[in-house]
Amino acid sequence: MRHVTAATASTGEPNRRRRSGVVAGPLTVMALSLVLVLLMGTRGQAHGVSGFDALFLQGITGAAIGPLMYLGAKHMVTGYDHLAFLVGVIFFLYRLKDVVLYVSLFTIGHSVTLLAGVLGGIQANPFLVDAIIGASVVYKALDNMGVFPTVFGVRPDARVAVLGFGLAHGFGLATKLQAFTLPANGLVANIVSFNVGVEIGQVVALSSVFALLTVWRARPDFVRHAFATNMLLMAVGFLLVGYQLSGYFLEA
Prior knowledge:
Number of strands: 0
Oligomer: single chain
Radius of gyration: 19 Å
Strand content: under 5%
Distance between the termini: 45 Å
Order of helices and strands: HHHHHHHHHHHH
Largest sheet: none
Low-confidence stretches: 10-26, 33-46
């Protein structure tokens, strides 16, 4: 698969390429504004479990397959840090089979650590894990902008990176569930159901995003706004990293 970036996508149009780094379309600005509102409204807890969902988890007494699948799907659809990373992953993927490949690698990664974290009792500091998740958004934005080969002379293997960051995203999910004392009765069924729900939510969210990207990429202004969009995506990633590291040091 030929790796496409914001830099290579505009080959042959020097003037457009120069403008792409500073111009952001109205949809891009609206999207960033929405993310910033979510960050402020949830105090940066991109995939926390609270409210009625928390009460439900605390009251589970056995297997609750359907509700846990729903909760997992809701968790992914509202987990904007996960979605920001995945949007970056599929941003320049034009073929469906490539989308399936990379999303599958991400799924394998986060499924392994979600199950290992909750069922295996593997612990990780939630602030540091979420900081890594924020860093994954920064990485993908930089990769899409072609920064690694231009500045460092190397390009990380995108497949390895997506799988590796998928492991971090899975731990992010696991740390939220570890905050609750889940009963041993039905635990395996519940966690597997939650994970299946996450995959369902992921498919629903990314199908919509991929459809919107397909329409946008058919417009003549896509290349002009691609670089700026990834710059804004990178800014969101840095916000997430900064917030989580602040929480880590304040807690310490």
